[in-house]
Amino acid sequence: MRILFASAEVAPFSKTGGLGDVAGALPEALASLGHEVVVVTPWYEGLRGDREPYWIGDVEVPFAGGFSKAGVGTLESGKVRYLFVGHDFFRRPELYGYADDVERFALFSRAVPQAAARVGFRPQLLHANDWHTGYLPMLLTTGWHLPDAYPGLPSLFTVHNVQYQGSSDLEQTLWWLRLPNALSGSYLHHFGRANALQAGVGFARRVTTVSPTYAVELTTPEFGFGLDGTFRSLESKLSGILNGIDTRSWDPATDAALPATYSRGSLAGKAQCGFALKQRFGLAADRPVIGVVSRLAEQKGIDLLLTAAPRLFDQGWALALLGTGDAATEALAQALATDFPSLAGVEIGFDDALARLIYAGADALAVPSRFEPCGLSQMIAMRYGTLPIVRATGGLADTVDDGRTGFVFQDATAAGVALAGAEAMKTGPGSPTWRGMQYDAMGQDFSWRRSAERYEALYRDMLPSAT
Q: Which residue, 44, 85, 124, 466, shows the most beta carbons closer than 10 Å to its own?
């Protein structure tokens, strides 16, 4: 199949979170299955990666009542071709966080077909991701101002996090997109405003999200963020496919960042990693460690863990935390490290080598999210033989088998975290039961190939004759 893949961020070129990881890994996995994949993403000021894209010229993008010129860059990496849309909108220090974000990504959505047509790519389907590309299924359906082969192109739309929806003035948005006012009564319209995410969900032929449980949660008021009714009405075309992890990069048997490597069959090196982790943070040598590698955001529930920390210490645990985000949560974490210097180690920021040491050296990894569409850290932890302690939500519930590969709790409270910590301590880090759970956890298949095969099946369902 010929697949056009659009995303606001694509690792390693740009990344703020899980979307970048998915858009970096899934196209490669699809290409390895024999598909031709072209990925389109913005050319940001801080574009990263080993190589710079090669600029091949400009395209005229239908936008804001006329046309706006955008540059197109390209490079090939592995079996995937990447196209980069250059415009003044993206020459800024950060990817997001600006008052005109919706306008910026409206232009990007309009530019995706133009950029792909510039290199002569004629896809059989489009895979769009999150609100930044939510207008694309609508543009393809309406067929206004599109290159040949793009009107009517079938689309799949993936919701990575429904909390972010791309809301804007309805009339203004239609003007940006150069679409008729008749669409003000379509799925674009949400309580008097334009909603990019709802437009993607409504106009796409199929809709996915990043775990089966999150697909169900989206249909409920608690997790739907105002779109639960839309998801219920379109439930027949909604499904959940778990994200994967890069099992080549995340492999304790070959991870060069670790002081010692180890494998499922021989865990001796993991003990050395644990010793190094305790030394790094000055933690008590005789205590098992709960690790945290996370954004410090309300969604992630790290405040619940920090509130529960004194009870966890009473149970016999120590804590090693790496993360950055909400200032109040950062301050709470640093205060904990000050008050309990041999029991709590905190590093504010992000350090890839330290993250890997925590995944390898900790006994357990806490992921107490209030909601979690998929989550990657629990999968990485299991691959490293570190048992996750997670809340039963979204992809956490789908990936962690309570009592077999980790520990699952229900209530998004400090008491819920503490009870799960007590259950894990009762099981006994280092005990034969714990070793058996580590063995089962490290045997789980979280590869991107597994996820790509699920998407491939959906694509073929959309295009029965596709080869």
A: 85
